Amino acid sequence: MNADLTLSNEKRVAIAGDWHSNRAGVRTSLSRLHREAPDVKTVLHLGDFNLGANRPWVAYKKSLLDLMADFAIERILVTPGNHDNWAQLGPRFATYPFDPYPLPGAESIAFLPRGYRFKMQERTFLSFGGAASPDQDARVSGKDWWPEEAPSLVEAERAARGGTADVMLTHEAVNGGSSKVDDVIACPNRQQFSQRGLEASHRSRALVTTLWNEVRPKVLFHGHMHERAEGHLADGRHVYSLDRDTKAGNIGVLNLKDLAWAWLAGS
After folding, report:
1. What does the alpha-carbon distance between residue 145 and residue 189 come to, in Å, rounded to a whole number?
2. I need a surface site. Which of 41, 191, 229, 243 has the fewest CB within 10 A?
């Protein structure tokens, strides 16, 4: 069953890539959105929002609420990334697997459980967050890396049982989605990433790719790779990779009527 999350008269939504608790980057993206698409009230965020980041989280959260008010954004729905605090998200989602997690003190920002389905203007969405950190050996478990960040086979199988969806939102990339992202995957930064981290990333990406091929959404959006890219498959499916904060390609607008995608100017 899909929850209907449509706001009144909502015809378009924004989709944004990784923000990494970068206030300047968020301001750039939201100001551009307000200038070019002032009707948009919802941002669907593709993770690495940096929930519980080492940067002053309270100040960042307050600045987000201020920016949302400044640019008339009514809510942000987050498909979590690997750099979101899964020690906080995991227990919440285990207890409430079918309910978004409103951020305490900022309830207009909510994190979506892995496999969460919803509707907007009759369009069906599947959110399937998380990814494996290829640099996990350089991080501290429980502080800035969490084993729970990577999706599991059980979660993917449960998500697949819900059937098809018009739009799939992931943090993890998929294999064969776009040639530009495939090129990045084929030539990883081995000075930064360990073999163990690369193998974990491979497993995570393969699992999400299998889910994508089972659900067969018309459009898939992902972050994680810090690349603006598009893939248009022969079977009619489309894949968009969004870039990170401060970079062109961080944000665009999806028309809910025909699923047409438009990068914002400068993106």
Report:
1. 19
2. 191
Q: What is the pLDDT of residues 160-217, one digit of tens each?
A: 999 999 999 999 999 999 999 999 999 988 878 999 999 999 999 999 999 999 999 9
* 55 vs 8 pLDDT, higher one: 8
* Greatest C-alpha distance within the chain: 49
d(CA 194, CA 217): 33
Region label for 130, one of left (φ > 0), alpha (ψ between -120 and 50) or beta (otherwise): left
Inter-helix orientation angle 23-36/57-70, to 10°: 10
**Of 121, 40, 116, 36, which is closest to residue 78 (Cα–Cα)?**
116
Confidence check: pLDDT of 58 > 90: no
From start to end of 225-264, where are the E strands? 229-232, 238-241, 251-255, 261-263
Q: What distance, in Å, lies between the first and last C-alpha atoms of the chain? A: 35
CA-closest candidate to residue 114, choices 94, 103, 129: 129
